[in-house]
């Protein structure tokens, strides 16, 4: 079988498990991660700053065979992210809407202490990462936590950032926590053509970066504004205002329409903002207006 740069890592490994060794030798150490294996070979090369053609040649040169025990030992543990030292890993339990109970905080602290973590880090995606774990401890750490991994990497809905809204914040104009929990349950981890971030803010201060994520919501005194196509990175882009003053019961149908439109029209690895730059905003706007008026 001839592999291509557009093939996903998991499909390459399934077709020939022995390719894992070749990819590891070139610097891909995330082959045990359930999120990274959904990346294409091209995307993996770009993420690890490798020559795509060299990587492609390497996997196509491997004889058919099974993965060695050594390669299995080097594969990234499930739900973990390799750290700078190339020896230890971080795990980030999923905390919907960034709302943690005392029990969750105690669990995270106990696991970090039990397995001698180097640090506990609050991330920008409203998760709490346990950093610097030995790979041999990852599975037991997840068992002790009894929590799902946060989708920190991969072609999927990554984080759903949610502010306190009018439930707690004196500046909140609209409810966010209940809606945010529902949105998180609905979208977090969903496979999409490219990574996808969501931010829910209860007022125009946009503390959850609603204009700088793929799909952003901002509360106003009259309802919710929806922004699309924002992103950070090397080529940052501000989101476009899609619709204004939606009511709470209109919000999720509109977001569903945006996500489905993105699935249908985006190229592989193309962020929503780049898709809008390529085909324009009119089609998406018309689709959403039909949903609102239906």
UniProtKB/TrEMBL annotation:
PANTHER family: NITRITE REDUCTASE (NADH) LARGE SUBUNIT
Protein name listed in UniProt: Hydrid cluster protein-associated redox disulfide domain protein
Alphabetically ordered keywords of this record: 4Fe-4S, Heme, Iron, Iron-sulfur, Metal-binding, Oxidoreductase
Matches recorded under Gene3D superfamilies: SP0561-like, Sulfite Reductase Hemoprotein, domain 1
Highest taxon of source: Bacteria
GO molecular function per UniProt: 4 iron, 4 sulfur cluster binding; heme binding; metal ion binding; oxidoreductase activity
Coiled coil: none
DUF1858 domain sequence ranges: 4-56
Domain (Nitrite/Sulfite reductase ferredoxin-like) ranges: 83-145
Stored InterPro entries: CHP03980_redox-disulphide, DUF1858, NasD-like, NiRdtase/SiRdtase_haem-b_fer, Nit/Sulf_reduc_fer-like_dom_sf, NO2/SO3_Rdtase_4Fe4S_dom, NO2/SO3_Rdtase_4Fe4S_sf, NO2/SO3_Rdtase_FeS/sirohaem_BS
Domain Nitrite/sulphite reductase 4Fe-4S span(s) in chain numbering: 154-289
């Amino acid at each position: 079988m001839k592999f291509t740069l557009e093939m996903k890592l998991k499909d390459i490994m399934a077709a020939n498990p022995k390719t894992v060794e070749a990819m590891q030798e070139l610097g891909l150490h995330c082959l045990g991660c359930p999120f990274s294996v959904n990346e294409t070979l091209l995307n993996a090369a770009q993420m690890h700053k490798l020559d795509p053609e060299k990587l492609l040649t390497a996997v196509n040169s491997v004889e058919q065979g099974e993965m060695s025990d050594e390669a299995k030992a080097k594969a990234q543990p499930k739900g973990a992210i390799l750290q700078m030292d190339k020896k230890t890993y971080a795990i980030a339990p999923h905390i919907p809407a960034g709302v943690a109970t005392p029990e969750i905080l105690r669990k995270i602290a106990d696991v970090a202490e039990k397995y001698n973590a180097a640090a506990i880090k609050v991330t920008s995606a409203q998760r709490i990462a346990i950093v610097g774990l030995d790979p041999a401890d990852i599975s037991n750490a997840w068992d002790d936590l009894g929590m799902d991994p946060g989708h920190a990497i991969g072609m999927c809905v990554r984080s759903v950032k949610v502010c306190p809204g009018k439930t707690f914040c004196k500046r909140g104009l609209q409810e966010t926590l209940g809606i945010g929990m529902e949105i998180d349950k609905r979208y977090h981890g969903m496979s999409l053509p490219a990574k996808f971030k969501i931010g829910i803010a209860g007022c125009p201060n946009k503390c959850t970066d609603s204009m700088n994520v793929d799909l952003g919501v901002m509360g106003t005194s009259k309802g919710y504004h929806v922004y699309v196509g924002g992103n950070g990175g090397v080529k940052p882009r501000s989101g476009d205002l899609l619709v204004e003053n939606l009511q709470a019961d209109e919000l999720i149908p509109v977001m569903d329409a945006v996500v489905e439109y993105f699935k249908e029209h985006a190229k592989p690895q193309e962020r929503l903002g780049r898709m809008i730059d390529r085909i324009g905003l009119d089609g998406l706007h018309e689709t959403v207006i039909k949903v609102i008026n239906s």
